[in-house]
Design brief:
By secondary structure, the protein is an alpha+beta fold. Helices cover 29% and strands 22% of the residues. The protein has 11 helices and 15 strands. The strands form 3 sheets. Strands 10, 11, 12, 13, 14 and 15 form a 6-stranded antiparallel sheet that branches. Strands 8-7-6-5-9 form a 5-stranded antiparallel sheet. A 4-stranded parallel sheet has the order 2-1-3-4. Strand 10 and strand 11 form a beta hairpin. The radius of gyration is 21 Å and the shape is globular. It starts with 5 loop residues before the first strand and ends in a 51-residue tail after the last helix. The relative contact order is 0.14.
């Protein structure tokens, strides 16, 4: 008899992610994982044993981990993502050494995590591999740094970008994202969830707002720049019921297993900013009506995941162009699997399983005999599939929490 695996998950012991993973293990008849907290890792208190298999999960739901990583006491603050990245990657590197020295094994490649959590590096690697991505003047390790508004305006002009997304290089959950527009007369406006306080500090808000003066936009960019900025062309998205639409596609061991449509009336589709779950069947029908194939859309996501072969599960943000015929990859997320109640796509090999159960099934196929061989490929039967999800108001962290969930400030409303 094969001995039961000895599993460790590094995450938030009280968080939903760890709970969902433990539920998946129990459903598979496997023993629960030993849980190590991120504060213990950051404090040098984590210990591992020979034969253990260690899974890393997001520290994003743990306020103490967020405080230690970003160095700010208010989780609504935007600043600190550069410090978060430096401390997180250092912690993962040290954890990897400790795991190896103990004779344990780490599920994912720590070097790839460092790339995935830097939008500039990740974008450059995707572009070099031929994965369709939005144009970017900050893509790759040799790209110019953005020191502030003056640098950004110069970059946008040189690249001919009148509509662009300006993102924190290490941000998540739309924290610090600005959708910037300029017109022929040089007028500037930005749509963002960033709220600037009277003292110049920046806060994440649950209300998307628009700044219409260059002075206001410049002040926000200047405050964000020390944490590192990434700039991309703002691609016109396909729509569903009059709302901009994109998709989160989960890829496990190279295979697209789960997908959800996200729609919004603002440029950001995140659920905590007013986005809503869209209709996956309608999106697939729109792709077919445009002469495209759903399989090709999933193939783009699988090609993006293949750029990071040492990371077993990623969440790919897929951007459908106007008309649903062409696709680009916005981001590849290391912790992009928090999609409660979403079950696998038809023909994916993960039918009936949520994203956590599908990962357990991929890692321990003996726990799900025959499942990986069921419906090989993507059959023509049930070509539209189903999406059991409606809007989930309890899931504010979609699509990717890498730090504290942005919460409302005193003047914001949901």
């Amino acid at each position: 008899m094969t001995p039961a695996p000895r599993l460790v998950v590094v995450g938030d012991p009280a968080g939903r992610r760890v709970a969902f993973f433990q539920d998946a293990l129990r459903s598979a008849g496997l023993p629960g994982a030993r849980v190590v907290s991120w504060p213990d890792v950051l404090g040098g208190r984590a210990r591992f044993a020979a034969g253990e298999t260690v899974r890393l999960d997001s520290p994003g739901e743990d306020p103490e981990a967020d405080r230690l990583l970003r160095g700010v006491d208010d989780p609504a603050r935007v600043e600190g993502s550069g410090r978060w990245y430096a401390r997180f990657t250092a912690a993962v590197s040290g954890l990897s050494r400790a795991v190896t020295e103990a004779g344990a094994s780490l599920v994912d490649d720590p070097g790839e995590l460092a790339v995935l959590f830097d939008k500039r590096l990740s974008h450059g690697r995707l572009r070099a591999a031929g994965v369709p991505v939005p144009d970017s003047p900050t893509s790759g390790p040799g790209a110019p740094a953005v020191g502030g508004w003056a640098d950004l305006r110069s970059l946008l002009g040189a690249a001919g970008l009148r509509r662009s997304f300006v993102k924190l290089a290490h941000g998540s959950s739309a924290s610090g994202v600005l959708a910037v527009e300029t017109n022929g007369a040089g007028r500037i406006q930005a749509t963002t969830s960033v709220e600037r306080g009277p003292d110049g500090r920046l806060f994440n808000s649950l209300r998307v707002r628009r700044y219409t003066s260059e002075r206001e936009v410049a002040a926000i960019v200047d405050a964000l720049a020390p944490d590192g900025l990434h700039v991309e062309r703002w691609l016109p998205k396909a729509t569903q019921d009059g709302r901009a639409a994109d998709l989160r596609v989960v890829v496990i061991d190279g295979r697209a297993t789960h997908a959800v449509v996200r729609t919004s009336r603002s440029p950001m589709t995140n659920l905590h900013l007013g986005g809503a779950r869209g209709d996956l069947a309608a999106a697939r029908a729109a792709i077919a009506a445009a002469g495209g194939r759903w399989e090709d859309a999933l193939g783009v996501c699988e090609r993006a995941a293949a750029v990071f072969p040492g990371t077993r599960c990623v969440g790919v943000d897929l951007l459908p162009a106007t008309g649903w015929r062409r696709f680009a990859v916005g981001e590849v997320n290391a912790f992009g699997d928090l999609l409660p109640r979403l079950t696998g796509l038809p023909g994916s090999g993960a039918e009936g399983l949520d994203t956590y159960a599908a990962q357990v099934a991929a890692q321990f196929p003996d726990a799900y005999p025959g499942l990986s061989d069921a419906n090989p490929g993507r059959p023509d039967a049930d070509p539209l599939g189903t999406d059991p999800l409606g809007a989930d108001p309890t899931d504010p962290t979609d699509p990717r929490p890498t730090h504290a969930i942005p919460r409302t400030t005193g003047t914001s409303t949901t």
